[in-house]
Amino acid sequence: MQLRPTRKEDLDQVMGIIGQAMTYMKAAGIDQWQNGYPDRPTIEGDIATGIGYVAEDEDGSVVATVAVTFDGELSYRQIEDGAWLTDGAAYATVHRIAVRANCKGRGVSSYILAQVEAMCRQRQVGSIRVDTHRDNRSMQRLLQKNGFSRCGRIFLCGGAEDGHERIAFEKVL
User: Fold this and answer.
1) Sorting pLDDT into bands at 50, 70 and 90, what band is 116?
2) Residues 6 or more apart from 21 whose CB is under 8 A from it?
């Protein structure tokens, strides 16, 4: 498996994976990704800005998608009921991680997080921050299994989910 930048020709596969994730969350009663986000223009923006990545299996098929940015996150400027583990230092942000339904349980998400860590080390960035919905227990378990600490609550700024509460996690590298 390899993590590589998302290309325009990956768009349909990525949207299919996101659609599967939306269906999974709806069935699990998780009110996340239920209002049309992330949509095709969001993923096209990820490609255009170079923050979109896909995990590609040995056979060349796209098995997961993620957005990784090193530009900071407006929603992370204020945190409640806790504090970030690092303050003022550069960090990576992970968004929109989703794995193809028939590839779940293979460690794909952990692989992606390990690759993000490697990207951080190359850029001398000392931590990774992620947020997720309070009901998204599988994402919370993934983060804790991979060494992330729960830091508090943030509220999303801008976009389709403006004002929605999320649980904030950080891992210091």
Assistant:
1) very high
2) 33, 98, 99
The CA-atom distances, in angstroms, between 127 and each of 14, 36, 139, 157, 173 are 26, 30, 18, 21, 5
Burial class of 120 by CB neighbour count within 10 A (0 to 12, 13 to 18, 19+): buried
Q: How many contiguous H segments (helices) and E segments (strands) does the chain have? A: 4, 7
Query: How high is the pLDDT of residue 159?
Result: 65
What does pTM read for this prediction? Answer: 0.94
Here the tokens at position 108 are 């794909």
> What span, in angstroms and rounded, lies between the C-alpha atoms of 10 and 60?
11
Instruction: Answer positive or negative: Cα dihedral of 84, 48, 32, 75.
Output: positive
Strands 149-155 and 52-56 come out as unpaired
Q: 131, 75 in Cβ contact below 8 A?
A: yes
Say if CB 166 and CB 136 are below 8 A apart: no
Confidence (pLDDT) at 158: 73
